[in-house]
């Protein structure tokens, strides 16, 4: 169990670090007005974004390991949600000071994660019918539509829709990973709709997230992402996937989840992230100057 928790913590650190690097790469890239997959090609021309993708891959792998080691979804997703605190701490280290409220939010986030870890009970093995994986795969379509609507908006509404859509995509990946059954002949996974659901959810989430980073501050969009990708999979895990609480620890889990989500919500108030100190080369590919890209606070 300890190793599973450590995997979840490592995933959080990887994701939080990747977010800052991806924000740097996104700010150096030409802004896209639509859900254009070619954005990935442009982003892959930016070294910080590529490094961020590498950290995302590591984070994803160790989070799946944590889930396969019988860690409840509500614990793993909440710990992964802690990456918004990692992001804010890195931004502060880069020279953008956090106010007392932000440091309190990070502290509350950390305390909430500890309480959630303490409240986790024994996991029950639940095998989903194949049809549910097809449902998860199909769910990527409305998630993409939500993201498309968000791209037509500006300011806070854009942050809410884009962050929520990305969070739902990552949520699909988490749910499919939690319920994934690896066959003895592992290469047969290529035929599994669960694997395709993981790929579809993660792919649409990363595309929307990359577009969001061009429009809103990284900590703002991350807050909406982590709130969504924590609440939805956690509820599904408890309701249908066999996740349980320790006897008498339901209240502790609810307090922990509340603290974690409040911490993320408070960090959503964090203003513009000053990335220009490490984005000196912004616009070198013909893209917009990052100072001209609209941001919300």
From TrEMBL:
Q: Does the keyword Membrane apply?
A: yes
- Record key words, sorted: Membrane, Transmembrane, Transmembrane helix
Q: What is the superkingdom listed in this entry's lineage?
A: Bacteria
Q: Signal peptide location in the record?
A: none
Q: Does the keyword Magnesium apply?
A: no
Segments passing through the bilayer: 47-67, 74-95, 101-119, 131-151, 157-177, 189-212, 218-241, 248-268
Matching PANTHER family? CONSERVED INTEGRAL MEMBRANE ALANINE VALINE AND LEUCINE RICH PROTEIN-RELATED (PTHR40761)
UniProt-recorded name of the protein:
Integral membrane protein
């Amino acid at each position: 169990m300890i190793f599973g928790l450590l995997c979840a913590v490592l995933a959080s650190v990887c994701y939080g670090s990747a977010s800052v690097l991806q924000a740097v790469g996104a700010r150096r890239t030409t802004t896209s007005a639509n859900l254009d997959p070619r954005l990935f090609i442009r982003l892959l021309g930016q070294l910080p974004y590529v490094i961020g993708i590498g950290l995302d891959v590591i984070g994803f792998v160790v989070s799946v390991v944590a889930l396969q080691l019988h860690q409840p979804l509500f614990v793993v997703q909440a710990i992964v949600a802690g990456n918004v605190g990692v992001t804010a701490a890195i931004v502060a280290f880069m020279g953008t000071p956090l106010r007392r409220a932000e440091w309190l939010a990070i502290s509350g986030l950390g305390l909430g994660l500890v309480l959630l870890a303490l409240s986790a009970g024994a996991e029950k093995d639940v095998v989903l019918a194949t049809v549910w994986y097809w449902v998860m795969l199909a769910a990527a379509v409305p998630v993409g539509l939500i993201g498309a609507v968000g791209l037509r908006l500006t300011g806070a509404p854009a942050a809410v829709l884009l962050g929520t859509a990305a969070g739902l995509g990552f949520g699909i990946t988490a749910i499919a990973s939690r319920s994934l059954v690896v066959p003895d002949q592992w290469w047969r996974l290529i035929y599994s709709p669960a694997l395709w659901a993981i790929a579809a959810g993660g792919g649409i989430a990363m595309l929307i997230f990359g577009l969001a980073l061009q429009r809103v501050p990284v900590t703002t969009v991350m807050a909406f992402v982590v709130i969504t990708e924590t609440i939805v999979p956690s509820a599904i895990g408890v309701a249908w996937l066999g996740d349980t609480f320790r006897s008498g620890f339901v209240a502790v889990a609810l307090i922990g989840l509340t603290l974690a989500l409040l911490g993320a919500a408070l960090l959503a108030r964090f203003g513009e992230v000053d990335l220009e100190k490490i984005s000196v080369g912004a616009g070198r590919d013909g893209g917009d100057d990052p100072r001209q890209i609209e941001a919300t606070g």
